[in-house]
Model the fold of this input.
Amino acid sequence: MTSLIDCAGKLLDLSQAHIMGVLNVTPDSFSDGGRYSVVDAAVARARELVAQGASIVDVGGESTRPGATAVAVDAELERVIPVIEAVVAELPVIISVDTSKPAVMSAAVAAGAGMINDVRALQATDALAVAARCAVPVCLMHMLGDPRSMQQQPHYDDVVNDVKDFLKRRIAACEQAGIPRQRLLIDPGFGFGKSLTHNLSLMRHLHEFSALGLPMLVGVSRKSMIGAVLDVPVEGRLYGSIALATLAAWQGAAIIRAHDVAATRHALQMCAAVRGAP
Done:
């Protein structure tokens, strides 16, 4: 597995865990919908994320929370492209675009994004070809169904093996489309078509995904699995998020997607210090 990935000219060394800061420029995201939908507010938030320790800022213009409705291509472009351009002009941070739409992928990379983060793992029509042409790293995430229906009684024969098999197939499809392995990352998709039991099992066995030989991105920040276990609302999920981020990093996650970057950075630094101890 390569530890160095090229994100449109910005190199990221994945021999240590990095934080991907969440920047939702949507009116309806589950945690911070509407807070950063104006460009100036989004840039200010990106500045905060970088100052707190984010190596990557993940810009998303379509909510993928359970029950979310689809967003038209033009609307998503209007949300994310001005933000990406403004952040790139001010900050040297790597920008990831959180999208499944090929047109948004292409425009975002042209605007300066250095990574594609796709919850549908390039399954949309033409997504593979467009991602190959963009020539930036792509994160392939597992999702059962779509955001509108994914939490309606999700079923697996064996959630760990089923998710792993799906990712294997998508990796093969990417390679066949001309996307080399050194530009691929994987994400088991916590909360995307999974029950609480499924999510907990995935976390318990997360180390098994290292067998796929690719860097792993994990996004568990503020998710409903934390609320279900701890019986707390979204704004009370910091401690649970930190616990899961640490468990993920301990099991080999290369990138942790987080809302609370400063606290997550401290947790990952402690995790790295213990892992490096004699």
